[in-house]
Amino acid sequence: MKDYSYKEKWEKLLIPEIVKKLAIINEFKGEQRLFIEAHKDELKELFELAKIQSTEASNRIEGIYTVDDRLKNLVQQKTTPRNRDESEIAGYRDVLNTIHESYDYIPINVNFFLQLHRDLYKYIGSVDGGVFKTADNIIREIDEEGNEKIRFRPVPAWETPEALEELCKAYREAKDDIDPLILMGMFILDFLCIHPFNDGNGRMSRLLTLLLLYKSGFIVGKYISIEKIIEETKETYYEALQDSSINWHENTNNYKPFVNYMLGVIVAAYREFESRVKLVTNTNISKSERIRETIKAHIGTITKADILEENPDISDTTVQRTLAELLKHNEIKKIGGGRYTKYVWNLEDY
Predict the structure, then answer these.
(1) I want to staple 231 with a disulfide (CB 3.0 to 4.6 A). Which of 57, 171, 226, 341 is the partner?
(2) How far apart (Å, rounded) are the C-alpha atoms in residues 120 and 327?
(3) Residue 283 has pLDDT above 70, yes or no
């Protein structure tokens, strides 16, 4: 059976690339903890935006969608689900809120994981919610020529309850001795390799990532969507997951690709938080100037919808007026037209 103990495995991951990321994250953590405490009111908009982005991105990775207006209303609990996709989105919203509000009271054990998974499916009435997989699941992939092949065989169904118990036990035994960020990455990789449920494993893994970060004092996921960063880099995510799962059953897999990837996601989240809060908490900057700085700081093109999403307290009218002014003064360029219109900072004049 798979050996889930981490005590002799984690030190192999203390390579320069990973150690550097750990140092960057801990430096951000120290700086931003005091900042967050001093600006709780100003950061409420970022918190609400992160919830919408997290719910959308984590579900979209799994092919679960709804239109933007419906998504926002579902996350803000202003409407009820109309179909299966919206029911799954509403379930994710509820589990996400539970973690945000009660992470201190959610232990790392199997019973609580089953409860979270149950809530993920509570609007569907699915028999799969809150129970382990009832049949062996196989992770497949289809190549460019349309040929299907097996990418990974998770733990068989009969072995799953014991495997998840051993995984949670290994985490509890290691949490006081191992760097929490390294332990988080190793734990999530093992959870995905067990693949304990018939459905919802990917979404559960991202919710558990947020939970483990919270429990270790890294609260950036409250204000910046970890799930959105994963979605934007999902090809790299799947490559790292595959590389780290090779020979997993034989206890000779290499955790480095996946742990290194996850640490990169956390670094990106903290850097985005730093850039966002400078605009949100600066009382001396006007809304028009915030829009200007949003475009200037954005690499590549940006749409009006992107600007509104990053600045939820600014109206559509203000954004439209500011875009017109920036175009008039040649500070930005307009690309395309109609619903496909994009904007980019005019680097030629600056």
Answers:
(1) 57
(2) 45
(3) no
Tell me the pTM.
Answer: 0.86
Tokens of 31: 């700086």
Distance in angstroms (rounded) separating the CA atoms of residues 306 and 228: 13
Domains of the chain: 10-280 (1.10.3290.10), 287-349 (1.10.10.10)
Q: Rounded to whole angstroms, how far apart are CA atoms 336 and 341?
A: 5
Q: How many other CB atoms are found less than 10 A from the CB of residue 84?
A: 12
Q: Which residue has the tokens 């985005």?
A: 272
Rounded CA separation 299/292 (Å): 13
Q: What is the C-alpha to C-alpha distance for residues 189 and 206, in angstroms, rounded to an integer?
A: 11
The pair of structure tokens assigned to 163 is 């495997």
Rounded alpha-carbon distances, angstroms, from residue 194 to 5, 43, 118: 15, 37, 18
Q: Any idea which of 55-64, 118-127, 185-194 has the lowest mean pLDDT? A: 118-127
pLDDT at 280 over 90: no
The DSSP 8-state label assigned to residue 302 in this structure reads B
d(CA 94, CA 98): 6
